[in-house]
Automatic annotation (TrEMBL):
<feature type="domain" description="Lipid/polyisoprenoid-binding YceI-like">
    <location>
        <begin position="5"/>
        <end position="175"/>
    </location>
</feature>
<dbReference type="Pfam" id="PF04264">
    <property type="entry name" value="YceI"/>
</dbReference>
<protein>
    <submittedName>
        <fullName>YceI family protein</fullName>
    </submittedName>
</protein>
<dbReference type="InterPro" id="IPR036761">
    <property type="entry name" value="TTHA0802/YceI-like_sf"/>
</dbReference>
<dbReference type="InterPro" id="IPR007372">
    <property type="entry name" value="Lipid/polyisoprenoid-bd_YceI"/>
</dbReference>
């Protein structure tokens, strides 16, 4: 068996997020803290990546003071409680290869110390030295005790409603070890 390990290069990796509400959407980035992937006979066997919830930035709010307030709110217990839970982790439990460098992946996502199984598709372009992984992960925030302005928990929110699902667009660059 030919087994090869890859370590995520945090400087070249990034997660972009999009959250939607009745009146529009917000977007930003989150830093990738670390991660690793193992391939066996050129197929993804396992992997994990960690994002730093303290690094959440907002790209669409230009007013500096409003941006800082918004970022602080996302770091608060209303959302990610970043002081207590600075890391969010996705760990691949099963990967099924398909055509065109795609993998159907089942993994465990942990946010705020709460873990749920997530299914997604990864696209992986790999050489002997580098593996580039891209995925869009849609997350129901209420499963991770992020209830702020969710219609599942609050009535009559009107145009202050924030939709439960948010997107993470994950771009990971990993170097062979």
């Amino acid at each position: 068996m030919d087994t090869k390990n890859f370590k995520v290069n945090s400087k070249n990796s990034l997660v972009e997020w999009i959250g939607r509400k009745v009146t529009g959407a917000h977007n930003g980035t989150i830093e990738v803290k670390d991660g690793d992937f193992t391939f066996e006979n050129n197929n993804l066997l396992s992997g994990k990546f960690v994002i730093n919830t303290r690094s959440i930035t907002i790209l669409d709010v230009e007013d500096a003071e409003t941006n800082v307030q918004f970022a602080s709110h996302l770091a608060s217990d209303d959302f990610f409680n970043s002081d207590q839970f600075p890391d969010a982790v996705f760990e691949i439990k099963h990967a099924e290869p398909d055509d065109n460098n795609l993998y159907y992946v089942k993994g465990d996502l942990t946010i705020k110390g709460i873990t749920h199984s997530i299914d997604t598709t990864l696209q992986i372009v790999k050489t002997d030295n580098v593996a580039v992984l891209d995925a869009k992960i849609v997350i129901d925030r209420t499963k991770f005790n992020i209830k702020f302005r969710s219609s599942n928990f609050f009535a009559n929110l009107g145009d202050t409603l924030i939709y439960n699902n948010f997107d993470l667009n994950v771009h990971l660059v990993a170097d062979a070890q």
